[in-house]
Amino acid sequence: MKKAIKILGIILMVSIAFNLNAQTKQEKQEIKAQQKQQKEVKSDLNKKASKNAQKETKRLQKEGWKTMGLPIDKQLETAWMKQYEMDPSGFPRYIVVTNQVVANTVSAAQMQAENLAKVRIAGAIQTNVASLVDMAVANQEISQTEAASITKAVENSKNIVSQKLGRVVKVFEIYRPKPNNNVELRMTMVYDMKAAMSLARQIVLDELKNDLEINKAQLEKMMGMDRMMENSKKIVPDEIAD
């Protein structure tokens, strides 16, 4: 019995040592990747912005816009790249939304713009799914009754999508003072298109799981990732500036 316990203890110690070694190796890889990324970011910051970005920055500065973070021209370049970036399959990589709000403080304006961005992203996802429904009806893949149920589920799930979006990335932010001590803020935020479509699919399927009128096989086919990504080409990124 003592021998068995001793062997078990040795196995446990070896297992712990192996896991720690694997974890340490993974941590080293992550640190190395972060250092590489930081080096690339630093190198990019030292590069001169494009003439278009510089020209647009001068226009914005003449209008009284200021930045609290990165130089405006660098932010513009990042935002522009996100707008037109494609994934390996040729689909838009991000949903991009730009909001301009007025509030009594910068922090209040930031919160307002971020919340509005999430609502607009959820709206873009809702539009995408709705057009899938229209396409399925036109191709006689689902009935009008099924389409009505799906449309209702999509409308009901808009707030859920907005709440579950997770991390929406800010790529551009400028502000300027307004009369009466108010602040005007312009913010561009992006959200990964594939993550958005996956979230929409899961939420709609969950909303409809107890609907006996829906043909589950047809719904699964209609909400397939390939078709959702194909349809996502219709979501056109917003312009960064007026």
Give short descriptive properties of this protein.
globular, 63% helix, alpha+beta, 242 residues, 4 strands
List the helices and strands and how they pair.
Elements: H1 2-46, H2 51-62, E1 66-67, H3 72-84, E2 94-103, H4 106-138, H5 144-156, H6 158-164, E3 169-177, E4 183-192, H7 193-207, H8 216-222, H9 225-231
Antiparallel strand pairs: 1-3, 2-4, 3-4
Helix pairs in contact: 2-3, 4-5, 4-6, 4-7
- What's the total number of strands? 4
Sheet with the most strands, sense and barrel status? 4 strands, antiparallel
Give the helix/strand class. Answer: alpha+beta
Order of helices and strands: HHEHEHHHEEHHH
- The termini sit apart by 79 Å
Question: How confident overall, as mean pLDDT?
Answer: 79
What is the helical fraction, as a range of percent?
55-70%
For the largest sheet, list the strands in their spatial order. 1-3-4-2
